[in-house]
Amino acid sequence: MTSQIIALIIFVGIFTLATLRKVHLGVIMFAGAAGVGIWLADMEMKQVVAGFPISILVLLVGVTYFFAIAQANGTVDKIIESAIARVGDNAFVLPLVFFALTAGISAMGSPLAGLVMTPIGMPLAKKYGIDRMLMGLAIGCGLSAGGFAPTSLFGIVTYGTAHSVGIPLNPLLLFAVALGANIVLLAAAYVMFGGFKLLKTRAPGEIGPAIAPNLAIKAPLPAHPFEREGIAKRSAQIARGGLKTLERTETPAAVRPRMNPTQLITVLCMAGLVASVIALALFGLDPDIGVLCFAFAAVMTLVDPKTGKTAVAKIDWSTVLMVGGIITFVGVLQKMGAVELLGDAASQIGSPLIAALVICLIGGLVSAFASTTGMLAALVPLAIPLVASGDIAGWALIAALGVCSSIVDVSPFSTVGATLVATVDEEERPRINQLLTRWGMSMVVIGPLGLVGALVLPTMF
Q1: How many helices (H) and strands (E) does the chain have?
Q2: How many domains does the chain have?
Q3: Range of the domain at 180
Q4: Nearest CA to 205 among 84, 117, 97?
């Protein structure tokens, strides 16, 4: 038992050290896994390395490569332009549109890619008399919802890790839970921050084709979650200097350029990917989304070789290494029996429901300050003992844990919240910072209570 406790202390210590020092978690985790495995668990190096999750690697690489091509050839920009140009002057609909756009972008491999909407949405909210808190939460909820799509990082890590430890979880069900939870939160934001009052007013300007040609998003895909300060500074710079094209001009409306053949083929491939995943799931098959992404990406690369070559550099190798390092270490902990030890400790709480609530509370609290992806990879395996008891459905607990770890990301202590604060006017930042702190910290409690009550509790009867 002593070696198991030491291994767990090392695991937590690495998490803390990487967060405080802002170094890559995966590098230290992999080194720690090797050290603990060889010296404390009497494992051979090949046994340690065997715990590296190859299936998740294929998923992450395939998905980020596919959507990097769509970003590089301008298809994503065209979709955003088209959506915003159709809003008109209906201020009430604007946060809903940004929720949908952010969710769509976040579903394209990297949840933090949705942050490119913040330097657009926040100034537009000011122009059209929308509470910036409402717009910020619309973007934050969209990012959380889209991040759990079967093609995005949070979803891939959650159901991929669940499958690797023997817990069945349907990717589409996970996405549906995340989408439903965030829609509820967005509705609450509309009530709390004057969203429904916008029904009685019309916007002072017009969002239409006049601005569409200038709306191309030039911000690159947000990098790894640890690059929090860089994302916030970049978004602030865009907000100060890159949004003048959003102001209404007096020149005649320009005709929006149509998609070129490459972009049309990209849209067809995106639709084909979604249709393939849904069709395979309906036939009871387990779609390998990573392989499907590689297949459609191959088509897009053959159509436009230059873009395909450029997109290789945008594959999210950083996240692959981070998730791989964490899961490799967790694999060592499992072989040592440390995970089972934690499960026994959780079972001593007396109630599986309370134990599930505690795990979700820990996930939400830590994720509010650290990497959501890292928390998902680390905590999902800890649900094994609770699921093994048969009192709790595995899919319900993992889905609740995943969403609880994501909806707190709007706190200003995380990448998402910091970016939202950075993209409002300086005089508004104290208010937004205070409100986002209250919202994020309240989600640490409200999320577990609501999701465990809605998902886990019914499965116990």
Answers
A1: 22, 0
A2: 1
A3: 2-460
A4: 84
